[in-house]
Structure formats: structure tokens, C-alpha cells
């Protein structure tokens, strides 16, 4: 007698994600990755310090230059039907303002820049699952922050040619084609991480 085949799990969509994670939800945070709801773990102190200092530098310069908007999590990025992410930071240029959802809950579409800070729990998903989806959906740049290596690698291109185009070390000044005029000194940010380890 043969066993009946198990039915494959149906992929969740962005509509399912929104229904399962109401705005008033004060519990765990989630991402929808390739149709699977993934609970997010809390960030490390080093992660938080890097994010806040990068964000503060970007906010000032993006505002002064009138380039667009910066957002940090919790903030939904509905990138395609089966993927809703919570990147560590994102930038939307003035030219792409139409992707902000009218209800004020996240964006639907591709931000210009996404920042993902790698951790042991997210490294594989960030590099192997999320990066190709960002590429396929038109994100101009993805900044991959490796706190252990003290580097920021900018991935850019178009679809299958999406690849690291420049890697900045802790002593460099980060520059971005997607944010003309912005220059972030990385040394003081990485130095602050050293102080909390």
C-alpha cells in the first residue's frame, strides 16, 4: 500500500502577510521570503550601533541635498508578490516616491538603495535569497554590511549582472551612485562598534 503524497505548502502572498501582521502587532517581527513567513530575531548591539550612526549620517546629507527619503525597520518593503522584507535601512529617491503606500504602511516596489547588515542568523538569507530578489525587481544598490570583516560592499547592476561593484573598508569614505553627493566616513562608525564589543 502506498502512502498518499503530502500536499506542498502554498506560498503566502503579500496580502496574506498584511493580514497576518496587523499594524498594531507589538509582537515578533516577520519577513515574507519566497512565500514563507520568517520570524526575525533581535539585532545585536553592534548591529544597532552601526545602523543608527549610518542612518544619522545619511539622514542629514539626504535631507540637505533634497534627494529623497530614508526609512528603517519596522517598515515593510513589498518587493514582489511573494516577498515582503524588513531591510535594515532603505532609501527612496524623489523620482520613486510613488512606491510609498497610500495607507502609510511601507512601500510596494523597489527602493533605490537597501542596506542589509549581516548576522549569523541572516547571512545566508540576505546573500542567497534576498539579494537575487532585490536584483530582479530593480533595486539600484544593495549595501551588504559585514561587521566581522568591517566592510560595506555595494552590489549594483541589472538582473543577472547584479554583483559587488565596490567594497569599502572601515577606513574608507562610502560613496553611492544612487545618492549623488552623499559621503559617509566609515571609520567613526566602525570605531563605535569596537567600543560595544
Which helices and strands appear, and what pairs or packs with what?
Layout lengths: L13 H7 L9 E4 L2 E4 L5 H21 L2 E4 L5 E4 L2 E3 L3 E5 L13 E2 L4 E5 L5 H14 L4 E6 L4 E6 L6 E7 L3 E3 L7 E3 H11 L1
Parallel strand pairs: 4-7, 8-9
Antiparallel strand pairs: 1-2, 3-6, 4-5, 6-8, 9-10, 10-11, 12-13
Helix pairs in contact: 2-4
Q: What is the count of structural domains?
A: 1
- Count the E strands: 13
First-residue to last-residue Cα separation: 59 Å
Q: What is the correct CATH architecture?
A: Alpha-Beta Complex
Question: What is the CATH class name?
Answer: Alpha Beta
The general outline is globular
Mean pLDDT over the full residue set? 91
Low-confidence stretches: none
The CATH superfamily label reads tt1808, chain A
Characterize the main sheet. 6 strands, mixed
Individual helix count: 4
Strand order of the largest sheet: 3-6-8-9-10-11
Helical content band: 25-40%
> N-to-C SSE series?
HEEHEEEEEEHEEEEEH
Q: In the CATH scheme, what's the topology name? A: tt1808, chain A
Amino acid at each position: 500500500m502506498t502512502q498518499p503524497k503530502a500536499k506542498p505548502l502554498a506560498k503566502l502572498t503579500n496580502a496574506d502577510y498584511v493580514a497576518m501582521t496587523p499594524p498594531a502587532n507589538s509582537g515578533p517581527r516577520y519577513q515574507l521570503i519566497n512565500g514563507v513567513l520568517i520570524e526575525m530575531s533581535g539585532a545585536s548591539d553592534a548591529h544597532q550601533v552601526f545602523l543608527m550612526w549610518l542612518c544619522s549620517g545619511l539622514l542629514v546629507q539626504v535631507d540637505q541635498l533634497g534627494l529623497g527619503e530614508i526609512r528603517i525597520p519596522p517598515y515593510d518593503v513589498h518587493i514582489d508578490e511573494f516577498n515582503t522584507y524588513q531591510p535594515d535601512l532603505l532609501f527612496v529617491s524623489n523620482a520613486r516616491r510613488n512606491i510609498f503606500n497610500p495607507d502609510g504602511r511601507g512601500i510596494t516596489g523597489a527602493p533605490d538603495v537597501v542596506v542589509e547588515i549581516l548576522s549569523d542568523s541572516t547571512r545566508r538569507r540576505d546573500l542567497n535569497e534576498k539579494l537575487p530578489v532585490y536584483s530582479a525587481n530593480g533595486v539600484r544598490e544593495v549595501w551588504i554590511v559585514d561587521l566581522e570583516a568591517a566592510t560595506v560592499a555595494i552590489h549594483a547592476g541589472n538582473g543577472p549582472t547584479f554583483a559587488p561593484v565596490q567594497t569599502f573598508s572601515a577606513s574608507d569614505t562610502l560613496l553611492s551612485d544612487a545618492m549623488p553627493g552623499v559621503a559617509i566616513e566609515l571609520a567613526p562608525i566602525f570605531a563605535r562598534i569596537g567600543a560595544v564589543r
